[in-house]
Design brief:
By secondary structure, the chain is mainly beta. Helices cover 3% and strands 58% of the residues. The chain contains one helix and 24 strands.
Length: 256
């Protein structure tokens, strides 16, 4: 196992940024947390994942804190287990691949051996009132608690956030699940779904190509909510005081 811990040099809320190309991010936001803390961990004691943690860089300027995990080498596959489902994320693979076989945890692709590494898990503990930014290739992110402002950029990673005052999220194939949104939201994805359980904001711009959009607006929601998809469905409910502008080329649109 390889593990490193980074602690904020100052107490109180921070503007925290994390760059983790592959793996998973778990964020906890609590009033009882006095100083931001980040723990990077992998079950590997050596190899690309362990080396990436050793080479991770942290920086801080006042209440702004950042942790950057370097990109893993090309031809590296990271295996993650979610319940009964095994998922694999890969960096750039060079050469022609005609088939993939897994032998003793190593990927045999097109006659060459590709190392399979254990996931890098980032556990982030933030004081209440903090802001958060996560940039990744395929790392999924879960946030428990409310963040003031959040930025999320990923290719295939999912985002599951309990509550945010303002959120700007972009992903290609990942799903976006927002529990409660208080003010402004911008969410864009190509094939992922966008779901908001309790929308209490004043402005939202939701765009997807083939994914579905599902929004439940609370009684305090107002302003304009724009939802656009090409082949997905759009469903907006509870939006009594919200100006809904919903459009789908070939999917169903339901607002009530």
């Amino acid at each position: 196992m390889t593990e490193r811990t980074f602690v904020s040099q100052t107490a109180g809320p921070v503007v925290f940024g994390l760059e983790l190309p592959m793996g998973s991010v778990h964020v906890q936001v609590l009033d009882s947390i006095k100083a931001a803390t980040v723990v990077l961990r992998t079950e590997d004691s050596s190899g690309p994942a362990a080396e990436a943690i050793h080479q991770a860089r942290a920086g801080q300027d006042g209440q702004a804190m950042s942790v950057e995990v370097p990109r893993l080498p090309d031809n590296t596959v990271m295996q993650s287990v979610h319940g009964n489902r095994v998922t694999q994320s890969a960096t750039t693979v060079h050469g022609n691949v005609t088939g993939i076989t897994i032998i003793n945890g190593r990927i045999i692709a097109g006659g060459s051996t590709t190392p399979a590494v254990s996931p890098i898990v980032a556990r982030v503990f933030l004081p209440a009132g903090s802001c958060l930014a996560v940039v990744s290739q395929s790392a999924s992110t879960r946030v428990h608690g409310e963040v003031e402002r959040m930025e999320f950029r990923s290719v295939s990673g999912d985002l599951d956030v309990s509550a945010a005052r303002r959120l700007n999220a972009t992903t290609t194939s990942g799903d976006l699940l927002i529990g409660r949104l208080v003010e402004q939201l911008t969410a864009r994805t190509v094939s992922g779904d966008i779901t908001i359980d309790r929308y209490a904001g004043t402005e939202a711009d939701l765009t997807t190509t083939s994914g579905d959009v599902r929004v439940y607006a609370t009684a305090t929601a107002s302003g304009t909510l724009r939802a656009t998809t090409v082949s997905g469905d759009v469903k907006v409910s509870g939006a009594h005081d919200v100006r809904v502008q919903a459009r789908s080329v070939s999917g169903r649109v339901r607002t009530h």
